[in-house]
Amino acid sequence: MSTLAHTMMTARTAEAGLSAPAELDRYPYGEARSSDRLGAPSWDSGDGELGRMGRRSAGSRGRGLHGQLVQQLGQMIVSGDLGADRPLVPEEIGQRFEVSRTVVRESLRVLEAKGLVSARPNVGTRVRPVSDWNLLDPDIIEWRAFGPQRDDQRRELAELRWTIEPLAARLAAGHGREDMQQRLGDMVEIMGHALAQGDALTFSRADAEFHSLLIQLAGNRMLEHLSGIVSAALQVSGAPVTGCDRPSDASLAHHGRIADALGNGDPVAAETAVRQLLTVHPEVERVVPAPREH
C-alpha cells in the first residue's frame, strides 16, 4: 500500500472508526456528513411574522453563530418556508436567533452572494425567486438535496455529472500526469480496503477525492471550476442516482478501469468506463438523461 493510501486508511476519527482526524484535513472533503448537519429548522408561523426560531441543534456545533444562521435561513428559503419576496427584518432575526446585529448582517450578506436574498434601500431585505439563486453553489445544492426539492436536485446533479465527467476522463487520458495518476490509483486502493472493512465513510471520501482528481487531470480550468458540483453531488447522493454513492464491488471495479484507462492514455476507454460507473445502479433510467416529454 502506498504512503498516501496508508495515511488515509489509518487516519480514522473516533465516531466513524477513525483516529487522528487532522490527517484527513489535508483532503478536500466535506466538514461533516449530512446526518451531522443542522437539522430541519422549527418555525412557528402562526403569528404571521417570521415565527419563533427553533433552538440550535447539537448537529450545528462547530459552525459558529454566523455559520449556523446562514445554514438555518438558507434551509428555510430553499425549502419554501420563506417564500419569494418575503421580507427579512434583521432586528427580528437577531431577536429570534439570539444573535447580534453583526452576525445577522454578515449572514444576510452571505445569502445575498448566493442569490437567495436581495437588500435594497427603502425596500429592505427580501427573499429572491428561485430563478435568481446560484444553483451551482455547494450549500444550495445541499439544502435542495435534503429538502422538498430533493428528487429534482439529485436528478439534475446526475444529469450534470453525466455531461461533465465523461468529457473530463477523455481529456485526462491525453495528459499523462504520472503524479496525478498515481494519486488516482491510491484512491482506488483506499476504496478497496475500505470496502473490505465495511468503512463507508473512508470509501466515500476517497471516492470524492478520485472524482476531483479526475476533473483536475483534464487540464480544463472551466471544467475544474465545476469540480465542486461533482463533490457536492457525491456528498448528497443519499438517493440511488449516482451509481457510486455506496460502496460496492461494481463501483470499485469501474473506478479501477478508469484509472487503468488513464494510465494507458486511452481516452475512449476512460470515457466509456466513466459512463459505466455512472450507470452502475439498477435504476439506470433515473440516471441517464433521456428526451423529456413536453
Give keywords.
single chain, 294 residues, mainly alpha, 12 helices, 3 strands, 53% helix, elongated, disordered C terminus
Describe the structure.
This protein is mainly alpha-helical and 294 residues long. Helices cover 53% and strands 3% of the residues. A hairpin with a 3-residue loop joins β2 (117-120) and β3. The longest helix has 23 residues, at 150-172.
Average pLDDT: 75
Low-pLDDT segments, ≥5 res: 11-62, 238-245, 281-294
Described by the principal axes of the CA atoms, the overall outline is elongated
Number of strands: 3
Instruction: Please trace the helix and strand order, writing H or E for each element.
Output: HHEHHEEHHHHHHHH
Rg over CA atoms? 21 Å
Percent of sequence in beta strands: under 5%
Helix content range: 40-55%
How far apart the termini lie comes to: 52 Å
Largest sheet: 3 strands, antiparallel
Give the class from helix and strand content and strand pairing: mainly alpha
Strand arrangement in the largest pleated sheet: 1-3-2
The number of helical segments is 12
